[in-house]
Specification:
alpha/beta, Maf protein, elongated, single chain
């Protein structure tokens, strides 16, 4: 009862789930994550998580025999969604637009269970404030290559930690997976992280 599928190629989400003692099999979604200006950034994250999950469940077919989790993270700057930057210029522009101010990070999660119970969907939001960031600091960070696979052009668990002035909310939501909510959801359905404690220990 501690095996799940992860509908994501994100190494950060894999590491976070494994850190809980879960056995994780990665099946990356082939959903393209298109922009949708009609949706708010929070709604966009929810749509992406839902569609990633549907894609993987459909491809699993009869092998859908364990909980399957999909997630999506969107950075929200005044109601505008900042996705993964396409190039260095876009990454620099994103980071400059976040300098010295607050933004929101939404991470939506969708989890399906193989016993035909309803899919569980939720979205957590954390406020993040950046220091004033100079051009040289932005250029150095972008040159590291770290921004290019991350919503908003930064990863709080990496070098961008130096850009952060403070956060209000769940740190793991900014990393890309609100772990506490995920664990509570799995526990409510009878799934437990693996214990490293010997069976005969007291």
């Amino acid at each position: 009862m501690n095996r799940i599928y992860l509908a994501s190629a994100s190494p950060r989400r894999l590491e976070l789930l494994q850190s809980l003692g879960l056995h994780v099999e990665v099946i990356p979604s082939e959903y393209g994550e298109p922009d949708n200006p009609a949706l708010t950034p929070r709604e966009l994250a929810q749509r992406h998580a839902r569609e990633k999950l549907r894609d993987v469940i459909a491809r699993l077919g009869t092998n859908f025999n364990r909980p399957t989790l999909a997630a999506d993270t969107v950075v929200d700057r005044d109601g505008s969604a900042l996705n993964k930057p396409r190039d260095a210029d876009e990454a620099c522009a994103m980071l400059a637009s976040l300098s010295g101010r607050e933004h929101l990070v939404h991470t939506a999660v969708a989890i399906a269970f193989p016993d035909d119970e309803p899919t569980v969907e939720f979205c957590e939001t954390t406020r993040v404030r950046f220091h004033e960031i100079g051009r040289d600091e932005i250029a150095e960070y972008v040159a590291s290559g770290e921004p290019f696979d991350k919503a908003g052009g930064y990863g709080i668990q990496g070098r961008a930690a130096a850009l952060v002035d403070g956060i209000v909310g769940d740190f793991y939501t900014v990393m890309g997976l609100p772990l506490g909510r995920v664990v509570r959801t799995l526990r409510a359905r009878g799934y437990r992280p693996e214990s490293t404690k010997p069976a005969n220990a007291h």
